[in-house]
């Protein structure tokens, strides 16, 4: 099948066509032609005003498969991802059982030959993500794990964290940690501040994140290795990593919604705004945006954490944290584009996450594989029962009109097109 993407603006700093408006002809999963000619094709996409980049990569997606498939399974995950513009996902190990054996890794990757969206397992650092006993990380790496983390749980045990950094140096593996002091955040429901006091909810203070980051950086300096810190939320967290980057091999990410939403949105006790780390204050939002602009924050991820109705449609105190955000990720980027240029934004969702994991970085040129995402930053649409491809619907944007939609996703000789 020949596919022609007509008059798209190419945003890919590794491409000789960066920032140029061109026609792109794809044939048999390869980029066959790039130029100004009106190539003949079986499928033509009129892409004037749209942005074409390398396929998006999500660094840390949650899927309930295996064990919690009622939240999300691999089929619905990859469908949602394709519709959201992602061609590759690194999936978190917080399943039942956790991703901690070679068989667990094989289960996740065995369908990749037949998928548009490639699934890359992030394996558990500790058994059952309890923080008490290291997994066989060399075996997991050999089986196909691309990074090591306890996912949505922090690696709270200091000695385990230290040994993991040392162990991973045998194959230059990266340790990924969600920084959180679990005792300071115990029973916490939202950011600790004026809003939590007014609402009468137990707060989760910034220092719970910042103390963990400070500890992690000290251990990295002592032990060596490579560290990636996930889901930053506070101004001081950004400052700590900005200072450390001059001396240590540390990278970090932020969820796309974290710089856009603040704790004032929890006034109505809407559980769709309950996340971990929590939404913080506007000054934290501004610091995160500054960190994105100056390069302190390397990667933007979706923060996709699906929760079924039983986990969300209950009292706020008992609701599980999380937002589904694969399909709405593009609209987050459109909002962030008011602060960052598109070249910088798209680098943080294409090349940067792949570099963290040491994976091949696709780029747009003739005779390259077509690993592509086409975004219409002005298209409006509604996430609802008809358009939502996830098993869950825990989104603050559910039923609302949002701006920014992926029009096409291509990878592995497969494609997805928006209706």
Would you tell me the structural class of the helices and strands? alpha/beta
Using only C-alpha atoms, the radius of gyration works out to 21 Å
CATH architecture: Alpha-Beta Barrel
Query: Helix and strand succession?
Result: EEEEEEHEHEHEHEEHEHEHEHEHHHHEEE
Give a count of the beta strands, DSSP E runs of length 2 or more. 18
Distance between the termini: 18 Å
> What is the CATH homologous superfamily assignment?
Metal-dependent hydrolases
Percentage of residues in strands: 15-25%
Fraction of helical residues: 25-40%
CATH topology: TIM Barrel
Report the principal-axis shape. globular
Largest sheet: 8 strands, mixed
Low-pLDDT stretches: none
Number of helices: 12
Q: What integer is the average pLDDT?
A: 97
Instruction: State the domain count.
Output: 1
**In CATH, what is the class?**
Alpha Beta
Brief overview:
The chain has 419 residues and is of the alpha/beta class. The protein contains twelve helices and 18 strands.
What does this structure look like?
- The structure is a single chain.
- With 419 residues, the protein is an alpha/beta fold.
- The chain has a single domain, classed as Metal-dependent hydrolases (TIM Barrel, Alpha-Beta Barrel), CATH 3.20.20.
- The protein contains 12 helices and 18 strands.
- It has helices at 74-84, 102-109, 137-143, 158-168, 194-199, 206-223, 235-244, 282-293, 309-312, 329-336, 342-347, 351-357; strands at residues 2-10, 21-27, 30-35, 43-46, 51-54, 56-61, 86-91, 118-124, 147-149, 174-177, 190-191, 203-204, 226-229, 250-255, 299-301, 372-382, 401-411, 414-417.
- Strands 1, 2, 3, 4, 5, 16, 17 and 18 form an 8-stranded mixed sheet that branches. An 8-stranded parallel sheet has the order 6-7-8-9-10-13-14-15, sandwiched between helices. Strands 11-12 form a two-stranded parallel sheet.
- Helix 5 (194-199) links the parallel strand 11 (190-191) and strand 12.
- Helix 2 (102-109) runs parallel beside helix 3, helix 6 (206-223) runs parallel beside helix 7 and helix 7 (235-244) packs parallel to helix 8.
- The longest helix is centred in the middle third of the chain and has 18 residues, at 206-223.
- The model has no long low-confidence stretch (mean pLDDT 97).
């Amino acid at each position: 099948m020949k596919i022609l993407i007509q008059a798209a603006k190419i945003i890919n700093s590794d491409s000789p066509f960066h920032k140029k408006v061109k026609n792109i002809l794809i044939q048999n999963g390869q980029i066959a032609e790039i130029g100004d000619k009106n190539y003949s094709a079986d499928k033509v996409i009129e892409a004037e005003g749209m942005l074409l980049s390398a396929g998006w990569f999500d660094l840390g997606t949650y899927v309930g498969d295996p064990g919690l498939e009622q939240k999300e399974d691999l089929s619905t995950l990859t469908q949602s991802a394709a519709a959201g513009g992602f061609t590759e996902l690194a999936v978190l190990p917080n399943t039942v059982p956790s991703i901690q054996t070679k068989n667990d890794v094989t289960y996740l990757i065995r369908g990749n030959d037949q998928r548009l969206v490639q699934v890359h397992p992030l394996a558990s650092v500790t058994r059952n993500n309890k923080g008490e006993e290291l997994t066989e990380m060399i075996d997991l790496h050999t089986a196909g794990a691309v990074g090591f983390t306890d996912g949505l749980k922090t690696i709270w045990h200091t000695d385990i964290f230290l040994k993991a950094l040392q162990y991973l140096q045998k194959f230059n593996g990266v340790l990924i940690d969600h920084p959180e002091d679990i005792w300071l955040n115990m029973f916490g429901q939202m950011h600790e501040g004026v809003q939590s006091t007014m609402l009468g909810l137990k707060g989760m203070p910034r220092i719970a994140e910042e103390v963990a980051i400070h500890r992690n950086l000290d251990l990295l300096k002592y032990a060596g290795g490579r560290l990636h810190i996930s889901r930053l939320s506070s101004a001081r967290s950004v400052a700590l990593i900005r200072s450390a980057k001059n001396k240590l091999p540390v990278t970090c990410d932020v969820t796309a919604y974290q710089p856009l939403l603040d704790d004032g949105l929890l006034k109505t006790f809407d559980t769709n705004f309950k996340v971990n780390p929590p939404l913080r204050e506007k000054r934290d939002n501004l610091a995160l945006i500054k960190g994105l602009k100056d390069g302190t924050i390397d990667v933007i991820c979706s923060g996709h954490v699906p929760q079924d109705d039983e986990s969300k449609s209950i009292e706020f105190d008992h609701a599980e944290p999380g937002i589904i955000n694969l399909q709405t990720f593009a609209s987050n980027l459109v909002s962030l584009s008011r602060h960052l240029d598109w070249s910088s934004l798209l680098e943080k969702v294409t090349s940067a996450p792949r570099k963290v994991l040491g994976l091949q970085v696709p780029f747009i040129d003739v005779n390259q594989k077509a690993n592509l995402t086409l975004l219409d930053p002005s298209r409006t649409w509604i996430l609802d029962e008809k358009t939502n491809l996830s098993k869950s619907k825990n989104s603050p944007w559910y039923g609302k009109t949002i701006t920014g939609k992926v029009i096409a996703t291509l990878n592995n000789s497969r494609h997805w097109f928006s209706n």
